Amino acid sequence: DQQVKQNSPSLSVQEGRISILNCDYTNSMFDYFLWYKKYPAEGPTFLISISSIKDKNEDGRFTVFLNKSAKHLSLHIVPSQPGDSAVYFCAASASYGGATNKLIFGTGTLLAVQP
Amino acid sequence: KAGVTQTPRYLIKTRGQQVTLSCSPISGHRSVSWYQQTPGQGLQFLFEYFSETQRNKGNFPGRFSGRQFSNSRSEMNVSTLELGDSALYLCASSPGVMAGITGELFFGEGSRLTVL
Fold first, then answer.
1. Is A112 exposed, middle or buried (0-12, 13-18, 19+ CB in 10 A)?
2. Which of A102, B33, B70, B90 could cross-link to B56 by cystine, CB 3.0-4.6 Å?
3. How far is A104 from chain B (nearest CA, A)?
4. Which residues does chain B have within 8 Å of residue A34's beta carbon, measured at their own beta carbons?
5. Cis omega (within 30 of 0) on the bond before B39?
6. pLDDT in tens, A52-70
C-alpha cells in the first residue's frame, strides 16, 4: 500500500517558468512532510520541509504548500532553472508522539527544465 | 566536513549468497537509517538505528538485518540473496532523532547491488 503517491512520473518545464510537483498521501497521522532532490549517481538531498500545523513554507525559489483536508502537498519552483532538472521525492513522517527518522517516500517525479 | 560514506559503491552477487554493506555517518551524527531504492518503488525504509539501538524496522523479510556500532557506523546484511534484492541501498544519517525537527536526512551515494 503506497501511503505517499506521486502520480506524475515526469514533468517538463521551460526555463524561467513555474514548476509544480504534486504529492498525495493517505495516512492522516503524518505530521511532517519533506521534499528531496536526487541527481543521477548521487544520494537524495534535502530541499524543504513543512509541519502539519502549517499550510505553506517558503525558502528562496522553493515553496511547499500543504492541504491537510485534501491530503495533498505541492512543491513550487519559481523561476525554474536548468540545474533544477532532477528527480524530486516527496516524503512524510509520522512521529506518533515519539521520535523517528523513518520517512515514507513517494516514487519520485523526474523534472526536466528546458533552456 | 566529510559526508555519509557508503562502501562498496558497486557489487555483484549471485542468488543464495549474502552481502554486507557499510555506512559511515557524518561525524557527530548518531542516527543512521537505511533505504532501498528500486525502479518504480521509490525509496523504501529498511531500518533506523540510534545509539546502537534499532528504533524502527520496515516491512522487509528477516533476511535483511542491520546493526550500529558504538562509533555510529552501521552495517546492513542481506542473506540468501534473491534476484529482487537488486537495488540501490542508501544510508542516511541525522544529528537527531526526529527528521521532522531537524528537517533533513543526509544521504550517502548508495551501494548498487546486482544479484545474478
1. middle
2. A102
3. 7
4. 99, 103-104
5. no
6. 999 999 999 999 999 999 9
